[in-house]
Write a structure and sequence with these properties.
Length: 266
């Protein structure tokens, strides 16, 4: 079992809200300082425009720091996935997490299956796994059906129980449904709180162990420890009103969440 961080662990510090946003080189150094040797570069579209020399330079930085890399994107159209396969090969990343839908592209089940069937033999030849994430825009049942329909040994599921709540799916049910196909785990805790005036609820992140995530059920059901699956820390940290406070809390959550995972994965 490997504990990893994600670029989502530094979401606000990478954002335009930061006076000086972190670079990926900065994130690599922060990851090393936290004693972590895996970083998932997830939903960081700028890397798609990098030339090969820049990508290889990042790989050399990661090597010098002793950090392994995974990638994450959104979308399953063949041209897009081929770009990420090329990046994965340059970065020696064994896994690319993706989502079926994007903001402007929602393939039908048949289109999704055809797109993945076209490109997965190339991932198989390269030894790179595609992990499709659970989230509210597609039911976990439909996601399992898609993975089983394509039936590639390099196609699986990235389980994130928090995402599915917005689709009115219970996290425990989702975990149990997708467990046979899980190849990557996103770990973030979450909770509901009443909005001002008690009009509705907000679903937001909280530090691990303080919310509704049944961590033990998640890890035991997908057999993450025995299978050596990477557990990637993410956050749903709400904006705290100013950058300084938000960045400080983001770093505190990284410390607390790493401590939680280390204590619960002896």
């Amino acid at each position: 079992m490997t504990i990893g961080l994600s670029t989502y662990s530094f979401f606000w510090q990478l954002s335009d809200e930061a006076p000086q946003p972190l670079t990926l080189s900065d994130v690599l150094r922060r990851t090393r300082e936290l004693g972590v040797d895996l970083l998932q570069i997830c939903d960081y579209p700028a890397i798609e425009q990098w030339d090969d020399d820049a990508v290889l330079a990042l790989r050399r930085e990661a090597d010098e720091l002793g950090i392994e890399l995974e990638l994450g994107t959104r979308g399953i159209r063949p041209a897009h996935l081929r770009r990420y396969l090329h990046l994965a090969e340059l970065l020696r990343a064994p896994l690319v997490r993706s989502m079926v839908n994007t903001a402007d592209d929602r393939p039908t089940p048949d289109e999704a299956a055809a797109a993945l069937a076209e490109v997965m033999p190339e991932f198989e030849a390269a030894g790179v796994t595609v992990a499709l994430e659970t989230y509210e825009q597609q039911s976990s049942t439909a996601l399992v059906e898609l993975v089983e329909r394509v039936a590639s040994p390099r196609l699986g599921i990235c389980v994130d129980p928090a995402n599915t709540v917005a689709g009115l799916e219970l996290p425990r049910d989702v975990v149990e449904r997708v467990a046979p196909h899980v190849v990557n785990v996103h770990v973030k805790d979450f909770a509901f709180s009443r909005r001002d005036g008690w009009v509705g609820f907000t679903l937001a992140g909280v530090p691990l162990g303080e919310g509704l995530l049944d961590y033990d059920h998640l890890i035991d059901t997908v057999d993450a420890r025995a299978r050596g699956l990477s557990q990637i820390i993410e956050h749903w940290l709400p904006w705290q009103g100013d950058y300084e406070t938000t960045a400080r809390l983001e770093n505190e959550w990284n410390d607390r969440n790493l401590d939680y995972l280390r204590r619960n994965n002896p």
